[in-house]
Amino acid sequence: MPCLNISTNVSLEGIDTSSVLSEASSTVAKIIGKPENYVMIVLKGSVPMSFGGNEQPAAYGELVSIGGLNPDVNKKLSGAIATILETKLSVPKSRFFLKFYDTKARIQLWMEWLHFLSYLHLLALEIPNFYMLGRTYKDLVLLTRRIILSFI
To answer: What Gene3D superfamilies does the record point to (predicted)?
Structure first.
């Protein structure tokens, strides 16, 4: 579920926020390639914000997605969302910053780490059996090396 969270120092009073939300939602869905019914847009206005040493209209956004992000997609999204903010909220494109989080990569790394820890746990359980079965320290080192190399 992609979630775009935008904060701006521009007051949203008198602005048609529904059009900002719907345009941002369809843009994110189209560029990332995910169904729009999974896209969430959060828009906060009147947030105290300074950018470049002044408080002229500016915006900050974070986009979190499980997959679908890459440098090309990020560039397209930055440009498209900046255009929406410039058109609807009068925030110049040069005063908008968008940060991307691809949670797929983080989840995958976490799962690999857990997998590695489970192997270490099994190895710890096997150490007493190695010596009881007459195996040597060298056999234990070779097994450990095989386990570690399986993650490289």
So the answer is: Macrophage Migration Inhibitory Factor
Residue 145 has pLDDT above 90, yes or no: no
Which fold is adopted by the domain 3-102? Macrophage Migration Inhibitory Factor (3.30.429)
Per DSSP, the three-state class of 136 is coil
Is 57 an annotated catalytic residue? no
Sketch the domain layout of the chain as residue ranges.
Answer: 3-102, 106-149
Cβ atoms of 49 and 13 within 8 Å: the answer is no
Helices (H), the chain: 17-32, 71-89, 103-132, 137-149
pLDDT in tens, 79-107: 999 999 999 999 999 999 999 998 876 66
Nearest Cα neighbor of 81 from 31, 18, 148 is 31
Neighbours of 64 (CB within 10 A): 16
Question: How far lies 85's CA from each of 17, 74, 101, in Å?
Answer: 11, 16, 20
Is the pLDDT reported for residue 120 higher than 70?
A: no
Q: Which of 2, 48, 57, 71 is labelled catalytic?
A: 2
